[in-house]
Amino acid sequence: MIERRWTARTPINLDVEVLSHGAGMVACKALDIGLGGVFLKINPDEILPDSNVELYFLLGAGEARLKHKIKAKVVRATTHGIGLMFRDFDATAFRSLQEVLHYKDIPTQ
Fold it and tell me: What percent of the chain has pLDDT over 90?
């Protein structure tokens, strides 16, 4: 399989909520992330292929926990999860992505 990503991905272990108009809100984990997209550990049957979704990255803990919203589109599904490409980037989404990328909660696999 040929790799089609235009940016590198960084391993990460973050809680994410996915809002899909077909499935509602689904909780999962982000396993890797880059400027172009993210891979989520989720049952691929929970979100329809080619769906436009809203991702809520949950940073921190307790009352100090922050949610960063970024819009994305499902571009691939595997038995381990789904790959999403970020979409509709604006300055606010870019700042949110920068915060997520700098969050240091590396996976413990």
Answer: 51
